[in-house]
Design brief:
The longest helix has 15 residues, at 167-181. The protein has helices at 15-26, 33-43, 46-56, 63-74, 92-104, 119-127, 167-181, 183-190, 203-213; strands at 3-8, 30-32, 82-86, 111-116, 129-131, 138-140, 194-198. The protein has a domain at 3-118 and 181-213: P-loop containing nucleotide triphosphate hydrolases (Rossmann fold), CATH 3.40.50.300. The strands form two sheets. A five-stranded parallel β-sheet has the order 2-3-1-4-7, with helices on both faces. The protein has a two-stranded antiparallel ribbon with strand order 5-6. The chain is an alpha/beta fold and 217 residues long.
Amino acid sequence: MDQLVILLGPPGAGKGTQAKRLAAKLGIPQLSTGDMLREARAAGSDLGKQVAAIMDAGKLVSDDIVVALIDDKMGRDVTRDGAIFDGFPRTEGQAGSLDRLLAARGRKVTAAVLMDVPDAEVVRRNSGRRMCPICQRTYHVDLAPPKTAGVCDVEGHELIQRPDDRPEKIQARLDAYHRDTAPLIGYYARKGLLRRVDGVGAQDDVFGRLAAALGAT
């Protein structure tokens, strides 16, 4: 069965983590935009060289190039039975491009699953993260605290908060999500493809709800 699943949700909802688990459960690959860009660059193909030049210049890779990378993936045997899209599409324009490239291959999105997480929970999850600058081990002040508050269990070094995990940075990402990506909820709802799951709770519980939404229990 061809399963082409899109995971939707705000930044920090856990889409990447759950996409990996769903991919393993369903036996189909996770297509992460970031991973595809890095793979293309490492491969050294003509498209990969374009990606490298753009990234080295500190610019954003265009939608056309991302779509070309996805189209290339969809033509490979690894995606014969489907894929989990992680990080794409981010806008209605990108969703339309994805629909067109899939239609050209006689395929279509089969489900768009929204991991529903309130903004306040996103801020709590992200702003509570702390990292050891030595070993890069990550903690959370509430969800996964170190044995001694503020100190890495392994290195004994004082933990830090990354600049991107400060509340004002998180809010900026949420604002961009609501402006650019949240309209996809309506886009896929109108197509009858949207499925909502509660994205709050333990990872195993959220995964169980995602799997049930896709009939993969």
